[in-house]
Amino acid sequence: MTLLGGWDPEAGRSAHGADRPTVLPVPSLLRSLLTEHLDPGYAAAAEARAAGRRRSRWQSWMWQIAGAVVIATVFAFAVAQARATEPGMRETQRALIGSVRTVEESAAAAAARRDELAGQVDAERRRRLEGDARGQRLLAELDEAGFAAAATAVTGPGLRITVTDPGVSGDLTDLSKQRLPGSRQVILDRDLQLVVNSLWGSGAEAISVGGVRIGPNVTIRQAGGGILVDNQPIASPYEILAVGPPHHLQDAFDASTALQRLRLLESSYGVGVQVATAENLTLPAGSVREVNFAKDFGG
Question: For the whole model, what pTM was predicted?
Answer without folding.
Answer: 0.57
